[in-house]
C-alpha cells in the first residue's frame, strides 16, 4: 500500500477543499492596487505618477489611460537598461537577483527579463496551486510517490554584474523548494549540464534508475528526449522504461499540434495538463480534466489586460499601435482573440508578452493560447493566425494519416507575386507535395474568409515542401537555441526565410 502517497494525496485534497474560491475580477483589482502601491516610489512609478492613479475612482481605467503599451525593446531601452548599470528602484523596488534569458523565437539576440524575488515567490505559489489542483484529475494514490522529470534549460546559471542569468526554466529549477528535491529528476548534477545533447544522453543513460510518474517541459524537446531514451534502451515506447508515467505537464506552446507525434511514443494513454510558464512569469495552468483550457492565475502578482487581435492594432514588427483599445477581465468576450498584456511583480508594465489568447470560459478566466503576434501572417490581407495554421496542419495529419511535428512558412515573392511557402516536418517526405498544398489551401479557405479573398486576388499560390523533422531541430541548434524554452518560428519574414531555405538545402539528409 502506498502509505506516503495516501498521506500526500490526503493533504492535497484537504487543502484544496479548505481554500476559498477566487473571484478573478475582484482578485485582479487587488493585484493591480498592490502592484501600484509597491512600485509607486520607483523611477517608473514616479514618472507615471502611480500615487495619483491609486487615488482614482476607476483604478483600472486610469491605469490604462496613463501608462503606454511596452514591448521588450521599448521597456528595455527606456527603463531596464538602467538595471544593467547597477541602478536600483527602476521599475520595481530594489534590483533583481536574476535575469531570464528569453530564447527569442523572433528576436536576433536573447532578451534579458528581470526576475525578482517577488516573482520567484509568485511562481512558487502558482506551482503549489497547480499541485493542489491535481486532486481534480482523479490520479491514483501511488502517483504522489513517483518522481518528476523536468526538462528545461540548464540550472547552471551565469554570473554577470552581481546577478545570475539563465532561462526561466533553469532559474525556477535552481530555486525549487527543499521538500520537492527528492522527487525532482534528472537531479542537480545532470540539470546543470549546459549542452543539451549531452544532458539528454545522460538522462537516457540513467533513465532505468528512476521511477518517473510525470514529465514537464516544451513538447518538441520532451519528444526528442523520450525518443533518445527509447533508442538508447532499444524499446518500443517510453512505458517500457517508465511504466508508472501517468502525467505530462506541457508548456510554452499549445499541445494540440504535437499530440499525434507525442502519443506515438507512449505505451498507454496519460493525462495531459497544459501550463503557461513564460520568461515573464507563470501565467496559467489547466485546473480540471473536462477541458484543455488553462485558468489565468489572477491573484498572484500578475495583472492582465487584453487587446482585441485586429490587424489595425498590430504593427509590422508585432508591437501594438498607441490607439489599440484594451479590455479588462470584466470586459472580455468569447470567440475573440486577444493580445495578452501583463503588469507584474518583476517590474513589467503594460507589457506585450507576444502571445495571443482566446477565452473558453470567461467566468472561470480560462484561456487557450492561439499564437504569437509576430507569427501573424497578414501579407496581402490573408490575416492568418497561428491557431488557424495549426488547425489546418492537424487536418492534414488526419487526412493523409501522417505525423507533422513542426512547420514554418513565409509569404515569399516569386516573379513579383506573393506565395505562401510552407515547410512541413514529417518522416513521410515522399508524399505528393502538390496534393498536400491543395488540401492545405482548401482547409484555410474554409477557416478564414480573409484568406479566401486574398487567394482570389494578390496571393498567387500555396507551395509545400516536406522535410525531415530533424532539420527544424538542427536549425535551432545552428542558431544556438536548442532545448529549454525554445520554440520554432511558425512564420518568418522574407529575409530570415531566405536563410532558412539555404539552411534546409545544405542540411537536409535522409
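^ Assign residues to that structure.
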Amino acid at each position: 500500500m502506498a502509505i506516503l502517497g495516501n498521506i500526500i494525496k490526503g493533504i492535497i485534497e484537504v487543502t484544496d477543499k479548505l481554500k476559498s474560491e477566487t473571484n478573478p475580477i475582484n482578485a485582479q483589482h487587488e493585484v493591480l492596487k498592490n502592484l501600484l502601491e509597491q512600485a509607486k516610489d520607483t523611477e517608473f512609478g514616479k514618472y507615471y505618477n502611480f500615487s495619483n492613479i491609486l487615488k482614482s475612482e476607476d483604478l483600472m481605467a486610469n491605469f490604462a489611460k496613463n501608462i503606454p503599451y511596452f514591448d521588450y525593446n521599448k521597456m528595455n531601452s527606456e527603463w531596464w537598461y538602467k538595471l544593467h548599470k547597477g541602478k536600483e528602484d527602476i521599475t520595481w523596488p530594489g534590483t533583481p537577483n536574476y535575469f531570464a534569458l528569453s530564447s527569442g523565437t523572433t528576436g536576433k539576440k536573447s532578451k534579458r527579463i528581470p526576475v525578482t524575488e517577488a516573482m520567484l515567490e509568485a511562481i512558487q505559489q502558482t506551482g503549489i496551486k497547480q499541485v493542489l489542483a491535481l486532486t481534480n484529475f482523479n490520479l491514483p494514490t501511488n502517483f504522489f510517490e513517483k518522481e518528476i522529470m523536468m526538462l528545461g534549460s540548464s540550472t547552471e546559471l551565469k554570473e554577470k554584474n552581481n546577478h545570475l542569468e539563465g532561462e526561466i526554466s533553469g532559474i525556477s529549477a535552481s530555486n525549487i523548494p527543499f521538500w520537492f528535491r527528492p522527487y525532482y529528476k534528472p537531479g542537480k548534477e545532470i540539470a546543470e549540464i549546459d549542452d543539451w545533447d549531452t544532458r539528454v544522453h545522460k538522462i537516457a543513460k540513467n533513465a532505468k534508475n528512476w521511477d518517473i510518474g510525470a514529465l514537464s517541459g516544451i513538447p518538441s524537446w520532451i519528444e526528442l528526449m523520450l525518443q533518445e531514451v527509447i533508442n538508447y534502451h532499444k524499446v518500443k515506447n517510453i512505458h517500457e522504461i517508465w511504466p508508472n508515467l501517468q502525467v505530462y505537464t506541457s508548456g510554452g506552446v499549445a499541445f494540440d499540434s504535437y499530440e499525434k507525434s507525442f502519443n506515438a511514443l507512449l505505451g498507454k494513454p496519460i493525462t495531459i495538463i497544459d501550463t503557461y510558464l513564460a520568461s515573464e512569469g507563470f501565467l496559467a495552468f489547466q485546473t480540471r480534466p473536462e477541458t484543455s483550457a488553462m485558468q489565468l492565475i489572477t491573484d498572484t502578482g500578475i495583472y492582465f489586460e487584453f487587446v482585441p487581435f485586429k490587424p489595425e492594432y498590430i504593427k509590422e514588427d508585432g508591437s501594438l499601435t498607441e490607439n489599440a483599445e484594451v479590455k479588462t477581465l470584466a470586459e472580455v468576450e468569447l470567440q475573440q482573440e486577444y493580445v495578452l498584456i501583463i503588469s507584474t511583480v518583476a517590474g513589467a508594465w503594460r507589457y506585450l508578452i507576444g502571445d495571443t489568447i482566446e477565452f473558453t470560459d470567461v467566468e472561470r478566466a480560462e484561456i487557450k493560447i492561439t499564437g504569437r503576434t509576430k507569427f501573424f501572417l497578414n501579407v496581402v490581407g490573408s490575416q492568418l493566425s497561428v491557431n488557424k495554421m495549426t488547425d489546418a496542419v492537424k487536418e492534414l495529419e488526419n487526412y493523409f494519416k501522417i505525423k507533422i511535428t513542426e512547420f514554418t512558412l513565409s509569404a515569399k515573392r516569386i516573379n513579383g507575386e506573393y506565395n505562401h511557402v510552407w515547410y512541413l516536418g514529417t518522416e513521410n517526405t515522399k508524399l505528393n507535395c502538390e496534393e498536400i498544398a491543395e488540401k492545405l489551401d482548401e482547409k484555410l479557405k474554409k477557416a478564414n474568409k480573409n484568406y479566401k479573398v486574398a487567394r482570389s486576388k494578390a496571393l498567387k499560390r500555396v507551395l509545400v515542401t516536406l522535410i525531415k523533422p530533424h532539420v527544424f531541430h538542427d536549425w535551432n541548434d545552428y542558431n544556438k537555441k536548442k532545448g529549454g524554452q525554445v520554440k520554432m518560428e511558425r512564420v518568418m519574414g522574407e529575409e530570415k526565410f531566405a536563410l532558412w531555405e539555404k539552411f534546409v538545402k545544405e542540411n537536409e539528409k535522409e
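Confidence is low (pLDDT under 50) at residues 1-7.
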